[in-house]
Specification:
Number of helices of chain B: 5
CATH topology of chain A: Helix Hairpins
Low-confidence stretches of chain B: none
Oligomer: heterodimer
CATH superfamily of chain B: Response regulator
Radius of gyration of chain B: 13 Å
CATH class of chain A: Mainly Alpha
Largest sheet of chain B: 5 strands, parallel
Number of domains of chain A: 1
CATH architecture of chain A: Orthogonal Bundle
Order of helices and strands of chain B: EHEHEHEHEH
Shape of chain B: globular
CATH architecture of chain B: 3-Layer(aba) Sandwich
Helix content of chain A: over 70%
Largest interface: A-B, 24 and 25 residues
Strand content of chain A: under 5%
Low-confidence stretches of chain A: none
Distance between the termini of chain B: 11 Å
Largest sheet of chain A: none
CATH superfamily of chain A: Helix hairpin bin
Radius of gyration of chain A: 34 Å
Chain lengths: 208, 128
């Protein structure tokens, strides 16, 4: 019992000393201020990035939903027109008595009345798709202000690091052969296919 | 003319991309389209029912697209399944690795409906 509590006490004492040491050296290095700023900026940054993720996903969802609503409307218009047209062709090829023609005229009239209704519904979806693009403005602003924060933090941290680096030689980061890089931000980078054509050319040169 | 009743499995961890690919395939007349959210989910679905074609992303959790492709090629039950990679990975190493693993086609994101149609056409043409 007393052994264990002694050990615990000792452990807490050492953690306390380490913390003080760390704090003192950070203060000496002028790091405290920078760390505080970073600590302050980052939760905020995460929130903002989450906002961007949310907004973009919402917008994509909105646009896709509209497309899925509008498509069947267009299909209906097209199918009905094709059917009516075929019926008219048949009638002209072989004109029938008046009763048949009357049916056809009625169906055609119904179709014509239906066209503005359906195109209006489609138009509403097109407007919805347009409005869904408003995320660009919002996320653009948030990302711009984020870039500003990152720039500031980067500059300050690099300054602190450079001032305190001493004589140690710079070591080149190890070259990683990583196959999961996500979208290429820099189209000018080495060894990158920047278009589908380049992908096709490469595959062809390999005999695929 | 290809058979429009072919069964497609669209594999991507982003629901939006799955939806876009699904809509594009529907646009091309294909009616039977299922989705899987990563390689593991895809393998489960491929083993549980019949599919004719896989369209897969690369960078996904659990089992990635390259792993999925390799697993498909090693499984006698589905080794011959056409696999089209649709991915943002655009490094030469990626394209070569996919080709060597037996991918039937490779499309880089962002892509167009025309590209998808062309690549599908090419794959069907080669398969005869």
């Amino acid at each position: 019992m007393s052994m264990a509590s002694d050990n615990t006490k000792d452990l807490f004492l050492r953690i306390g000393q380490l913390t003080r040491l760390l704090r003192n050296s950070m203060a000496n290095l002028g790091l405290e201020q920078a760390i505080m700023e970073v600590a302050d900026a980052f939760p905020n940054t995460r929130d903002r990035l989450n906002y961007v993720v949310g907004k973009t996903s919402q917008a994509a969802d909105r646009a896709l939903t509209s497309v899925e609503v509008a498509r069947p409307l267009q299909d209906t218009l097209s199918e009905n027109a094709t059917q009516l047209s075929a019926r008219w062709d048949a009638w002209f090829a072989n004109p029938q008595p008046l009763d048949d023609a009357r049916e056809l005229v009625k169906a055609t009239r119904g179709y014509l009345q239906q066209v503005p209704e359906l195109t209006q519904l489609t138009n509403r979806q097109l407007t919805e798709i347009m409005m869904a693009q408003d995320f660009q403005d919002l996320t653009g602003q948030v990302l711009q202000s984020l870039m500003h924060v990152i720039e500031t933090v980067e500059k300050e941290l690099i300054n602190v690091l450079v001032e305190n680096m001493g004589e140690r030689e710079a070591v080149a980061p190890p070259e990683m052969e990583n196959l999961k890089n996500g979208p290429q931000i820099d189209a000018m980078a080495e060894g990158i296919a920047t278009s589908q054509d380049q992908v096709d050319d490469l595959l062809e040169s390999l005999g695929f | 003319m290809t058979d429009k009743s072919l069964r497609f499995l669209v594999v991507d961890d982003f629901a939006t991309m799955r939806r876009i690919v699904r809509n594009l395939l529907q646009d091309l007349g294909y009616k039977n389209i299922e989705e899987a959210e990563d390689g593991q989910d895809a393998l489960n679905k491929l083993r549980a029912s019949e599919f004719d074609f896989v369209v897969s992303d690369w960078n996904m959790p659990n089992i990635d697209g390259l792993e999925l492709l390799k697993t498909i090629r090693l499984d006698p039950a589905m080794a011959k399944m056409p696999v089209l990679m649709v991915t943002a990975e655009a490094k030469r190493e990626n394209i070569i690795a996919a080709a060597q693993a037996g991918a039937n086609g490779y499309i880089v994101k962002p892509f167009t409906a025309a590209t998808l149609e062309e690549k599908l056409g090419k794959i069907f043409e080669k398969l005869g």
